[in-house]
Design a protein that fits this description.
The protein is of the alpha+beta class. Helix content is about 40%, strand content about 25%. It contains three helices and twelve strands, in the order H-H-E-E-E-E-E-E-E-H-E-E-E-E-E. A six-stranded antiparallel barrel has the order 1-2-5-4-3-12. Helix 1 runs antiparallel to helix 2. The longest helix has about 80 residues.
């Protein structure tokens, strides 16, 4: 009712004024002032009609504007809702395509490593600590995941290892975490060493290749893979590449700075290797 009065109040007021004038003229006629009425109507009829017609047209135009404004506002609201739905559908479509792509790559990995038993899981929370590089995934004991299980991408690139475990969640320490260490071999010569996390490098999303065998030669650009030694990780997973070579104090011992192949910042989904064939 409020909206109706708001939209039609002015129009009603004009009609009331017109009716009042007509009643006033009618009353004058009943009082016997016929001549006065006829004279008044003769003088005022044309101008009054024009004024009333102009007023009605004016208020009609205002009413039309208000009605059109409300209609446009309602239409805009509907269009905004449709746009939001379309954007949501587009995001879901992109996410579905990305997941399908990951699963296709995973299928290729399964075909190459038929001994791998893997569990897919989503990344749900990154640690806010400046002293570690860890994140939480959406699967845990109830999915057959165990402490120490390796975590990889769909391309067979090493991400890290399960270090904490709940029924429906698990914590993954990445390979740049200060507490991580992975047996590795490097380059065409297959020199063995150990990739370890180091706090000073973790901030740059890098790790350290150290404990190299005597006489080992490493070069910038060499690929670093898991060696499989110790049985904690399958052999042949890609760790990263050597981006720099430095020497310890005294310049006697070389070590490599490893940049991980995995882009940790873009992780959405990972795969936990629950079992695999250990090759000594």
């Amino acid at each position: 009712m409020k909206d109706y009065l708001k939209k039609n109040g002015i129009r009603i007021a004009v009609i009331v004024v017109a009716i009042a004038l007509m009643i006033g003229l009618g009353t004058a006629a009943r009082d016997g002032n016929i001549g006065l009425v006829h004279n008044a109507t003769g003088v005022l009829k044309a101008p009054l009609q024009k004024v009333l017609s102009s007023a009605v047209n004016f208020f009609d135009s205002i009413y039309g504007y208000l009605y059109e404004y409300d209609s446009l506002e309602a239409e805009n609201e509907s269009l905004r809702a449709q746009l939001a739905d379309a954007q949501k559908a587009a995001r879901e479509g992109i996410e579905a395509n990305e997941e399908n792509s990951r699963l296709r790559e995973l299928l290729n990995l399964r075909q190459k490593h038929t001994d791998y038993e893997m569990e897919s899981s989503k990344v749900v929370l990154w640690s806010s600590s400046n002293w570690s590089s860890t994140f939480t995934i959406s699967k845990g004991k109830s999915s057959g995941i165990e402490l120490g299980d390796p975590v990889i991408t769909e391309y067979g690139v090493l991400v890290g290892q399960i270090t904490e475990l709940g029924e429906t969640w698990a914590t993954v320490s990445t390979l740049i975490d200060a507490d991580m260490s992975v047996g590795a071999f490097v380059g065409a010569t297959g020199s063995s060493g150990l990739v370890v996390g180091e706090f000073s490098l973790m901030k740059n999303k890098q790790a350290k290749l150290t404990f190299l065998a005597d006489g080992a030669q490493i070069y910038v650009g060499d690929e670093v893979l898991t060696s499989g030694s110790g049985g904690s990780f399958p052999a042949g997973l890609v760790i990263g590449t050597i981006s720099n070579i430095q020497s310890e104090a005294g310049g006697q011992i070389e070590y490599g700075i490893v940049t991980p192949e995995c882009d940790l910042d873009s992780l959405v989904q990972v795969f936990v290797i629950k079992s695999y064939e250990v090759v000594e």
